[in-house]
Amino acid sequence: METILLVEDDAALSEGIALAFSQQPYEFVRCATLAEARRALQTRVFSLILLDLGLPDGNGLELCRQLRDRRDPVPVLFLTANDTEYSEVAALEAGGDDYITKPFSLAVLRARVTAALRRRVPAGPELVEIGPFRFDFARLRFEKQGVEVVLSRTEQRLLQLLVKNRGQIVPRDTLLDQVWDGGEFVDENTLSVAVRRLRAKLEDDPRSPRYIQTVYGVGYIWKGNGDE
């Protein structure tokens, strides 16, 4: 059974979300504050986290950053009433996997949670060595010049699609479809942020990328073998 940590201070909404999933094989652990969530994370392993941005004792971004800093790849889906582009970009750059604006349809929430839990690194080469990089997709270990690079599940999927098709342009629609399971509820800004985060972790100069290059109006390409 999948275990989901729901961090939401609106008691009625929290109960409604849990009830919406009552017919599915998920166990919910509900918290109303960051402090409660941190205690839960110390004693349980979760399959996914639904995380409100605005909580009584802080911002959900803080918790997400802490998880990523300690190399925890658990999917994090942000819930928020703030629908600004700035807020969405901040959430994704903090390591979030998705961003859902309140009020939302419970059917859409179920679809996004199901998609996030279904995601796995796509089929392809399990071990790839390119120049300074060593990508072990079987063991989910990624290195640059022998130093481990920690990637979220979304970043892992994005990387493998680009590496598997290196030297070929991968259209934006293809990436949205394969990384986000159809991309029906994901906008292109989410892809742009994911690419930016991946560049920041792999490129020497993310502002002038050598490997992950943009083909404007089309998509992205992993350029070269890394040893030019």
From TrEMBL:
InterPro entries: CheY-like_superfamily, OmpR/PhoB-type_DNA-bd, Sig_transdc_resp-reg_receiver, WalR-like, WH-like_DNA-bd_sf. Residues 125-224 form the OmpR/PhoB-type domain. Residues 125-224 bind DNA. It comes from Allofournierella massiliensis. SMART domains: REC, Trans_reg_C. Residues 3-117 form the Response regulatory domain. The modification 4-aspartylphosphate is found at residue 52. May play the central regulatory role in sporulation. It may be an element of the effector pathway responsible for the activation of sporulation genes in response to nutritional stress. Spo0A may act in concert with spo0H (a sigma factor) to control the expression of some genes that are critical to the sporulation process. Keywords: DNA-binding, Phosphoprotein, Transcription, Transcription regulation, Two-component regulatory system. One of its GO terms (biological process) is regulation of DNA-templated transcription. PROSITE patterns: OMPR_PHOB (PS51755), RESPONSE_REGULATORY (PS50110). This is Stage 0 sporulation protein A homolog. GO terms for molecular function: phosphorelay response regulator activity; transcription cis-regulatory region binding. GO terms for cellular component: cytosol; protein-DNA complex.
